[in-house]
Design brief:
Layout (H helix, E strand, L loop, with lengths): L7 E7 L4 E4 L5 E14 L5 E12 L2 H10 L5 E14 L5 E14 L3 H7 L6 H12 L23
Parallel strand pairs: 4-6
Antiparallel strand pairs: 1-3, 1-5, 2-3, 3-4, 5-6
Length: 159
């Protein structure tokens, strides 16, 4: 085998709203934790649930704005990236290590309806595009000939 591979694929829920950081050189990044959980039954028949927390870093230019604007705590998301371990020193001068997932691909799995239900009082701009499209489309044509004797066909079904 010639080479190595550092690839991570996760589906999980955000543990808090994404935090955006801007840098002097014009760059920016977004970070947030996600939780992945597994549930299984042990030998004694008890259901066991394990949750693993992952520190997520997104610094790809297009993804930073999308993640910051549309992701919220509790949303489900699919992420692809790589594992990165950083070494840093704390206030006492001790070496510390942080393991993060550096994301280069993201798919939001929480639907607009679920997202709007979670935040009824605030509508994001991507939620407004659907209502704008429905306003601009013309109403369906009304067939006046079939309205005479057929009362069964004039029900209030939305489809």
């Amino acid at each position: 085998m010639a080479g190595t591979l550092n690839k991570v694929m996760l589906i999980g829920n955000l543990g808090k709203d994404p935090e955006i950081m801007h840098f002097e050189n014009g760059g920016s990044l977004v970070k947030f934790p996600i939780a992945t959980s597994e549930t299984y039954t042990n030998r004694d028949g008890q259901r066991i649930s394990n949750t693993e927390w992952h520190n997520i870093i997104i610094n790809a230019k297009g993804l930073v704005e999308v993640a910051h604007k549309y992701l919220k705590k509790g949303h489900k998301v699919y992420l692809e990236g790589r594992i990165k371990t950083r070494k840093w020193q704390d206030q006492s001068g001790n070496d510390r290590y942080s393991t993060e997932i550096q994301v280069n691909h993201m798919t939001m799995l929480t639907s607009r309806a679920e997202s709007e239900g979670a935040a009824n009082d605030s509508q994001g701009s991507y939620a407004n595009t659907e209502s704008m499209n429905s306003i601009s489309s013309p109403p369906p044509p009304i067939n006046t000939e079939s309205q005479g004797n057929n009362q069964q066909e004039t029900d209030d079904l939305p489809f």
